Amino acid sequence: MAFFLSTKGQLHPYRFKYLEGEFEKARMERTEIHTELTKKIPRTLPLEQNEFFAIDIMNKPVFSRPFDSFLGTIRDEMKKHNIRHVPLIKDHMIIGMISDRDLLRVESGGTFLYLKAEDIMTTILVVAEEETPLAHIARVLLEEKISALPIIDKSHKLVGMISRTDILKAVVYNRLVLK
Q1: How many domains, the chain?
Q2: Is the whole model's pTM more than 0.70, yes or no?
Protein backbone atom coordinates (compact mmCIF):
# COMPACT_ATOMS: atom_id res chain seq x y z
CA MET A 1 0.00 0.00 0.00
CA ALA A 2 1.47 3.32 -1.01
CA PHE A 3 -0.91 5.80 0.64
CA PHE A 4 -2.58 6.12 4.03
CA LEU A 5 -5.01 8.49 5.69
CA SER A 6 -3.88 9.52 9.15
CA THR A 7 -6.63 10.34 11.61
CA LYS A 8 -5.93 10.87 15.30
CA GLY A 9 -2.57 9.14 14.97
CA GLN A 10 -4.01 6.04 13.30
CA LEU A 11 -2.93 5.10 9.77
CA HIS A 12 -5.59 3.67 7.48
CA PRO A 13 -4.61 2.23 4.06
CA TYR A 14 -6.18 4.29 1.29
CA ARG A 15 -6.49 3.94 -2.48
CA PHE A 16 -7.21 6.88 -4.72
CA LYS A 17 -9.62 5.84 -7.49
CA TYR A 18 -7.77 7.93 -10.08
CA LEU A 19 -4.62 5.87 -9.45
CA GLU A 20 -6.40 2.53 -9.94
CA GLY A 21 -5.12 0.57 -12.87
CA GLU A 22 -1.80 2.34 -12.86
CA PHE A 23 1.14 0.00 -12.72
CA GLU A 24 2.44 -0.23 -9.18
CA LYS A 25 6.20 -0.46 -9.15
CA ALA A 26 8.46 -1.26 -6.26
CA ARG A 27 11.83 0.42 -6.04
CA MET A 28 13.52 -2.74 -4.84
CA GLU A 29 12.65 -6.19 -3.64
CA ARG A 30 13.11 -6.15 0.12
CA THR A 31 12.57 -9.69 1.35
CA GLU A 32 12.48 -13.22 0.02
CA ILE A 33 8.79 -13.44 0.84
CA HIS A 34 8.09 -10.24 -1.11
CA THR A 35 10.25 -11.51 -3.99
CA GLU A 36 8.31 -14.78 -4.12
CA LEU A 37 5.00 -12.93 -4.15
CA THR A 38 6.07 -10.60 -6.94
CA LYS A 39 7.17 -13.50 -9.14
CA LYS A 40 3.49 -14.45 -9.33
CA ILE A 41 2.50 -10.97 -10.54
CA PRO A 42 3.22 -10.37 -14.22
CA ARG A 43 5.22 -7.18 -14.71
CA THR A 44 4.16 -5.76 -18.03
CA LEU A 45 6.15 -2.54 -17.84
CA PRO A 46 9.89 -2.34 -17.27
CA LEU A 47 11.18 -0.19 -14.43
CA GLU A 48 12.48 2.88 -16.20
CA GLN A 49 15.85 4.36 -15.32
CA ASN A 50 14.37 7.79 -14.76
CA GLU A 51 11.76 6.52 -12.32
CA PHE A 52 11.84 8.41 -9.04
CA PHE A 53 10.31 7.49 -5.71
CA ALA A 54 9.50 9.48 -2.60
CA ILE A 55 12.72 8.33 -0.95
CA ASP A 56 14.73 9.92 -3.78
CA ILE A 57 13.61 13.50 -3.21
CA MET A 58 12.03 13.70 0.24
CA ASN A 59 13.33 16.23 2.72
CA LYS A 60 15.04 14.55 5.63
CA PRO A 61 15.54 14.62 8.51
CA VAL A 62 12.01 15.73 9.21
CA PHE A 63 11.49 18.88 11.23
CA SER A 64 8.58 17.91 13.48
CA ARG A 65 7.24 19.21 16.77
CA PRO A 66 5.07 17.91 19.62
CA PHE A 67 1.37 18.55 19.03
CA ASP A 68 1.15 20.69 22.17
CA SER A 69 3.85 23.20 21.11
CA PHE A 70 2.94 26.88 21.20
CA LEU A 71 2.24 28.49 17.82
CA GLY A 72 4.69 31.33 18.43
CA THR A 73 7.52 28.84 18.91
CA ILE A 74 6.54 26.88 15.80
CA ARG A 75 6.30 30.07 13.72
CA ASP A 76 9.78 31.17 14.83
CA GLU A 77 11.27 27.74 14.04
CA MET A 78 9.57 27.62 10.63
CA LYS A 79 11.12 30.99 9.75
CA LYS A 80 14.52 29.93 11.08
CA HIS A 81 14.55 26.70 9.04
CA ASN A 82 12.73 28.19 6.01
CA ILE A 83 9.99 25.55 5.98
CA ARG A 84 6.26 25.79 5.37
CA HIS A 85 4.91 22.56 6.89
CA VAL A 86 5.50 20.97 10.27
CA PRO A 87 4.26 17.47 11.13
CA LEU A 88 2.96 17.26 14.70
CA ILE A 89 3.85 14.27 16.82
CA LYS A 90 2.34 12.52 19.84
CA ASP A 91 3.90 9.34 21.23
CA HIS A 92 6.18 9.06 18.16
CA MET A 93 3.19 9.04 15.79
CA ILE A 94 2.17 11.80 13.39
CA ILE A 95 -1.22 13.12 14.47
CA GLY A 96 -1.46 16.37 12.55
CA MET A 97 0.25 19.02 10.50
CA ILE A 98 0.47 22.77 10.54
CA SER A 99 1.37 25.05 7.63
CA ASP A 100 2.46 28.64 7.28
CA ARG A 101 -1.04 29.38 5.93
CA ASP A 102 -2.60 27.95 9.09
CA LEU A 103 -0.45 30.33 11.13
CA LEU A 104 -1.34 33.33 8.96
CA ARG A 105 -5.05 32.71 9.56
CA VAL A 106 -4.71 33.08 13.34
CA GLU A 107 -1.60 35.23 13.74
CA SER A 108 -3.40 38.57 13.86
CA GLY A 109 -5.56 37.53 16.80
CA GLY A 110 -4.60 38.66 20.28
CA THR A 111 -4.46 35.09 21.56
CA PHE A 112 -1.91 33.81 19.02
CA LEU A 113 0.94 33.41 21.51
CA TYR A 114 -1.31 31.37 23.82
CA LEU A 115 -2.58 28.97 21.18
CA LYS A 116 -1.04 25.54 20.72
CA ALA A 117 -0.57 23.60 17.51
CA GLU A 118 -3.31 21.17 18.51
CA ASP A 119 -5.79 24.07 18.49
CA ILE A 120 -5.46 24.66 14.74
CA MET A 121 -3.68 21.61 13.26
CA THR A 122 -5.00 19.64 10.33
CA THR A 123 -5.88 16.21 11.72
CA ILE A 124 -6.77 14.26 8.58
CA LEU A 125 -3.63 13.80 6.50
CA VAL A 126 -2.65 11.96 3.36
CA VAL A 127 0.59 10.08 4.08
CA ALA A 128 2.75 8.15 1.59
CA GLU A 129 5.33 5.39 1.95
CA GLU A 130 8.91 6.14 0.91
CA GLU A 131 8.68 3.63 -1.97
CA THR A 132 5.71 5.39 -3.58
CA PRO A 133 6.37 6.46 -7.19
CA LEU A 134 6.85 10.20 -7.45
CA ALA A 135 4.32 10.37 -10.30
CA HIS A 136 1.64 9.06 -7.91
CA ILE A 137 2.61 11.58 -5.25
CA ALA A 138 2.46 14.43 -7.77
CA ARG A 139 -0.99 13.31 -8.91
CA VAL A 140 -2.32 13.10 -5.35
CA LEU A 141 -0.93 16.55 -4.46
CA LEU A 142 -2.65 17.97 -7.54
CA GLU A 143 -5.99 16.16 -7.28
CA GLU A 144 -6.38 16.57 -3.51
CA LYS A 145 -5.18 20.21 -3.57
CA ILE A 146 -2.63 19.66 -0.83
CA SER A 147 0.82 21.16 -0.75
CA ALA A 148 2.86 18.61 1.20
CA LEU A 149 2.85 14.95 2.23
CA PRO A 150 4.52 13.30 5.20
CA ILE A 151 6.53 10.24 4.13
CA ILE A 152 6.73 7.09 6.27
CA ASP A 153 8.81 3.92 6.13
CA LYS A 154 7.50 0.34 6.25
CA SER A 155 7.27 0.50 10.05
CA HIS A 156 5.14 3.67 9.74
CA LYS A 157 7.86 5.89 11.18
CA LEU A 158 7.92 9.47 9.86
CA VAL A 159 11.07 9.72 7.70
CA GLY A 160 10.53 12.65 5.33
CA MET A 161 8.35 15.29 3.72
CA ILE A 162 7.60 16.06 0.09
CA SER A 163 6.04 19.31 -1.09
CA ARG A 164 4.92 20.58 -4.47
CA THR A 165 8.11 22.65 -4.52
CA ASP A 166 10.23 19.51 -4.07
CA ILE A 167 8.58 17.92 -7.09
CA LEU A 168 9.11 21.04 -9.19
CA LYS A 169 12.79 21.08 -8.18
CA ALA A 170 13.12 17.42 -9.21
CA VAL A 171 11.55 18.19 -12.59
CA VAL A 172 13.69 21.28 -13.23
CA TYR A 173 17.05 20.22 -11.82
CA ASN A 174 16.96 16.50 -12.61
CA ARG A 175 15.03 16.81 -15.86
CA LEU A 176 12.55 14.41 -14.39
CA VAL A 177 9.65 13.33 -16.57
CA LEU A 178 6.62 12.19 -14.60
CA LYS A 179 4.53 9.56 -16.39
Answers
A1: 1
A2: yes
